[in-house]
Amino acid sequence: MGVQIDALIEAEIAGFDASSRGGAMTLRDFQARRVRKHRAITVNFSGGITQTCWTVVRSDGCYSVLYVPRAGCFTLCVDSDFGPLDIGVHGPALACFASV
Fold this sequence. Notes:
Number of helices: 3
Oligomer: single chain
Shape: globular
Number of strands: 5
């Protein structure tokens, strides 16, 4: 799974516009928080649904970005006492990361 996630992220990075100051800062911060080894983690979705997802960026204490294999996209999760909680922000990893 890690190779597939890395390929998706590398394709995003290759197409990301980092020519502006904001874009360059987003890419730099994303790269600094990106995990080297993806690990499985249970994510809580609305309706009491849980799914196994994969880490993409380390939590900053409030938010983390994870890969959702069933949906084939990334999600922004808020950290909670019960583990990561999906907050409905889905799409490319960099877009999820940049939304906070």
